[in-house]
Amino acid sequence: MRPIQTITGAAAIAVMTLMPSAAQSDLLGVPGPISFQGEDYALAWTSQPSENYVKQEYVPAGQQVETYQDMILVEAVIGALTPMDAAASQIQSLEARKGVDPVLNYDLMRNDATGEVLLDFLVSDLEADPVIVEWNAYRYQALGDGEGVALVAISRRGYGEDGATSFMTGLGAMRSEAINALANLSFPAVSIAP
């Protein structure tokens, strides 16, 4: 299961079938490492599925994007899109999973003073071998010029039945601490290179 993280939800999922970039070039001006909750995350994967959309994934030392347990995502999309639009699109893709994902759950928080939106959600792939349970928190912010949206996100996973059970047992405390840390993280200054 490739992470369902995408800044524009279902609309962008169709273009996310690209292979990982061999050179891992920083396309957003955020080369890393990104420090989060006492751990450094290094740039591990980049993709530019379209001229106006870039996605980068960062993992701690020893982890791979294909089998990560902890990941930071930084994305940017240029266009007529607000943070709430991006979150609503992601919610639409989550709603489409309702009949097939028994652990699906999400919560949306909006900061009216800044216009930022934070969406956290839990998904699973119980048909995968091993089973995967994934929790994500996406923090959306308008790009500096107001022409698009930037995203910084945390994604965490548990694998296999024992790993998924352990992950779900510790989710409450982990979720609260990670959301707090994400909300207080200095938002990376992102820009899509021409």
Q: What labels describe this entry?
A:
Protein Transport Mog1p, Chain A; 194 residues; single chain; globular; signal; 8-stranded antiparallel sheet
Structure, described:
Helices cover 22% and strands 36% of the residues. The chain has one domain (10-184): Protein Transport Mog1p, Chain A. It has 194 residues and is an alpha+beta fold. Strands 1-2-3-4-8-7-6-5 form an eight-stranded antiparallel sheet. The chain is built from three helices and eight strands; from the N terminus they run αββββαββββα. It has helices spanning 10-13, 83-95, 160-184, and strands spanning 34-36, 39-50, 53-59, 70-78, 105-110, 117-125, 132-142, 148-159. It is globular and about 45 Å long.
Number of domains: 1
What order do the SSEs take from the amino end to the carboxyl end, as H and E?
HEEEEHEEEEH
Write down how many β-strands occur, each being a DSSP E stretch of 2 or more residues: 8
* Strand neighbour order, sheet with most strands: 1-2-3-4-8-7-6-5
How far is the first residue's CA from the last residue's CA? 31 Å
The helicity comes to 10-25%
Beta-strand percent range: 35-45%
Q: Can you give the mean pLDDT? A: 87
Please tell me what the overall shape is.
Answer: globular
Radius of gyration: 16 Å
